[in-house]
Amino acid sequence: YLSPESKTLATIVRFSPIRLMFSVPMSVYKGDDFSRDKATLQVVLSDGCILEFKEFKVIRDNKADKSTDSLSFFVDVENDKKFLMPGAYVEIRFVYSETGILVSKNWLTLAPNGAEVVLLEEGILQKRQVEIGAPIGNKYWIKSGLKEGDIIVTVPVSPFQIGQAATGVPQ
């Protein structure tokens, strides 16, 4: 996955708007679309200078490279000041600004009136509406609706079980 530790390299292939090309191994790609409303793009130059872009466009190549078992992506950004040069290698990072709790999408029910989680409250299974943020692969940010100490039920619960007594096993 793309992170500061992954040292993902991208190749610059066009001047302005400049196009950065990068690959993500299929084994770590979780379906992220790297959209600009969810992340800031950081481009780390060879001298360590970091450029940040709030506006960018990500394009995914729809076929996997079988020789490297990876997907290719292209990112277009404005390069008015000509900091980025075609043919140069840079490190890229997508920095997500969401805050809250990151949970598996399997722990959520996406209902017409919003997202819900099942909690174990005082030994009783209860549904609670939560506000979710950006999906990150197969997970969602829960921005609000939970408080410290809430116990999220991580196994499937039928609607008939809501309101019933249950015991939990910490994970």
Q: What does this 3D model show about the protein?
A:
- There is one protein chain.
- Helices cover 0% and strands 50% of the residues.
- The protein has 171 residues and is mainly β.
- It has a 7-stranded antiparallel sheet, with no helix packed on it. It has a 5-stranded antiparallel sheet with strand order 8-12-11-10-9, with no helix packed on it.
Query: Helical region count?
Result: 0
Average pLDDT: 81
The total beta strand count reads 12
Major beta sheet, strand line-up: 4-3-7-1-2-6-5
Which regions contain 5 or more consecutive residues with pLDDT less than 50? none
Structural class: mainly beta
Explain the layout of strands and helices.
Elements: E1 9-15, E2 18-25, E3 39-44, E4 50-53, E5 57-65, E6 70-77, E7 89-96, E8 101-104, E9 108-111, E10 114-121, E11 124-136, E12 139-144
Antiparallel strand pairs: 1-2, 1-7, 2-6, 3-4, 3-7, 5-6, 8-12, 9-10, 10-11, 11-12
